[in-house]
Write a structure and sequence with these properties.
Number of strands: 14
Order of helices and strands: EHEEHEHEHEEHEHHEHEEHEHEE
CATH class of the largest domain: Alpha Beta
CATH topology of the largest domain: Rossmann fold
Strand content: 15-25%
Shape: elongated
Largest sheet: 7 strands, mixed
Strand order of the largest sheet: 2-3-1-4-7-6-5
Number of helices: 10
Helix content: 25-40%
CATH architecture of the largest domain: 3-Layer(aba) Sandwich
């Protein structure tokens, strides 16, 4: 019988993540709010954690039950056979999200779930698991919504957007999962040149390079949540990792470029490229925007200029956006450019007519992903 899973994703990327999960072999894929429900077996769970570029976490659904108050929550948790997922020699933690009218504090909800689990353990084993909020063997996720409680095991551990290759970041880094989504939305393939003239610590070029070389995004992580579960299949996991390495490409047909006026963040980008073993495939340079030139006659350009939310003063950024628009228009004929903008007034300063736009959230900032065909 297939297991029920749920991949959490950034708002607005549900349909795109559903496509990715389908490509990875997921069944009964259904996009929802900030996530995608799907079905599959244990190999698929491992495969999705290793290969999916867009989700934050992959949750294994255990149960869902009516839950209006603390007593219903306690009783519902107690009905689950926790000995199958968690014995007293394993540590655990509980993450709680959502609320009901009577359960509106996540800390209390998590405490009630913890109490129900350890009380069951004491009854069965005479002892209980210890709590480890940082690196638990088993991380339990409960979500309250419309007087129901959904109970999951978090198979990912830390968020999947933390690939493990990027200890060095700029002041306002783009999440790796969002960068991967932007690249997918752009339609870029490895037979096209790729450039980010405002690359910061290099997330967009790095994610493009990983996609182009068919390197699994989970390759550089220290571990996943499912690796400390009681039913972890080490031989299966090893075989999937071996197969992933065998699928990697050894070259890219077209160049990938990243530049930024800040030499220090370019040093960070180069360090990140070394950490994921792609330093030989990306050309990072410290270049002021006004000096940027296209490396080829055509290609895909994606950039994430400051919006004035975390970096830059909106009043001073108007000139910068106008300069960006002029450079795209004058120097990048034959290219397709994409700009992620969280400031409508600034995006209008680019002075080019976008042929397509998509609403995307960059964290808590509502953005537009603007496409420009440059002739």
């Amino acid at each position: 019988m297939p297991r029920q899973y749920f991949a959490t994703v950034a708002r607005g990327l549900e349909s795109l993540a559903a496509q990715e999960l389908t490509e990875l072999g997921a069944q009964s894929v259904e996009p929802g709010f900030c996530g995608v429900a799907f079905q599959g077996d244990r190999p698929l769970l491992y495969q999705v954690n290793l290969w999916a570029r867009l989700p934050f976490r992959i949750l294994l659904r255990l149960e869902a039950f009516p839950c209006q108050d603390a007593e219903a929550l306690y009783q519902g948790i107690q009905t689950l056979p926790w000995q199958e997922y968690l014995t007293p020699d394993y540590t655990f933690a509980v993450d709680a999200t959502g609320k009901t009218p009577q359960l509106n504090h996540s800390h209390f909800t998590a405490l009630q779930v913890k109490n129900a689990i350890v009380d069951q353990q004491r009854q069965q084993f005479g002892t209980r698991s210890h709590i480890d909020t940082q690196t638990p063997d088993v991380r339990i996720n409960v979500h309250l919504h419309q007087a129901r409680c959904v109970v999951n095991l978090d198979s990912s551990g830390s968020s999947l957007h933390r690939r493990g290759y990027r200890p060095a970041v700029g002041a306002a880094p783009l999440k790796e999962s969002l960068a991967a989504a932007l690249i997918r939305l752009s339609g870029w393939q490895s037979d096209l040149a790729f450039m980010d003239p405002l690359c910061g610590s290099g997330t967009l070029p790095l994610e493009a390079c990983l996609q182009g070389l068919r390197i699994a995004p989970g390759t550089f992580r220290q571990g996943f949540g499912f690796q400390t579960w009681p039913d972890f299949d080490a031989a299966l996991w090893q075989s999937l990792q071996t197969k992933a390495r065998e699928q990697q490409r050894s070259h890219l047909p077209m160049p990938i470029w990243g530049s930024d006026q800040n030499a220090e963040v370019i040093d960070q980008a180069q360090l990140n490229a070394q950490n994921c073993h792609v330093a030989d495939y990306i050309w990072f340079e410290a270049i002021d925007l006004q000096d940027v030139e296209p490396p080829t006659d055509s290609g895909i350009l994606i950039c994430n200029p400051p919006y004035g939310e975390r970096l830059g003063n909106p009043r001073e950024l108007g000139d910068f956006y106008r300069q960006l628009g002029q450079i795209l228009k004058q120097r990048f004929k034959g290219w397709t450019a994409f700009v992620l903008s969280g400031n409508k007034a600034l995006s209008q300063s680019i002075g080019l007519k976008s042929c397509q736009r998509k609403a995307i959230n960059n964290g808590s900032i509502a953005c537009q992903f603007l496409k420009y065909e440059l002739y």
